[in-house]
């Protein structure tokens, strides 16, 4: 319990675009339930600002979709979300129960540029120019939905995100090859002494394990 005579404990959390999900909601709810005395400072930042903020100790913990290879940072992979295809209603590809990436070469494919999927990016870059679909990056998931629902092409995003938007006039199809995943990473300074952040990290791992079950 928090001693009223001492400063209130806090956790300065930085959240990069694309991280928001039911998993993050579960983690924050668990944090509030188990340590209600901890003041949570939320910072919505770009991935680069998140990393800079950790270095400069403006943030205690960061959550992002981008893996960082740096010995001065501790990075843990938390939850893995499969990507799927979003298509307009009545789209010809809906005749198929699942769709391969190489079957999209005649279609415009919209992707939210903040939603990193290293395995998908690597596969797309390995394809020849004649096989590669016409990928167009958009600034938000909402813009991806707009273009797909209007019939201008298909979209690739995390399956859970697409399914929550099913009322927007789109359908979901699994991607046959892969898997192509969106991975949420927890990042902290290596060797950092912060008991509140330590406990938050353990809760994040508990949520990740529960989602695997």
Automatic annotation (TrEMBL):
CC per GO annotation: protein-DNA complex
Pfam families tied to this protein: LysR_substrate (PF03466)
Gene3D superfamilies, per the entry: Periplasmic binding protein-like II
GO molecular function terms listed in the Swiss-Prot or TrEMBL record: DNA binding; DNA-binding transcription factor activity
Key word Hydrolase present: no
Source domain of life: Bacteria
Alphabetized UniProt keyword annotations: DNA-binding, Transcription, Transcription regulation
Domain LysR substrate-binding: 6-192
InterPro entries: LysR_subst-bd
Family: Belongs to the LysR transcriptional regulatory family.
Protein name per UniProt: LysR family transcriptional regulator
Organism: Luteibacter anthropi
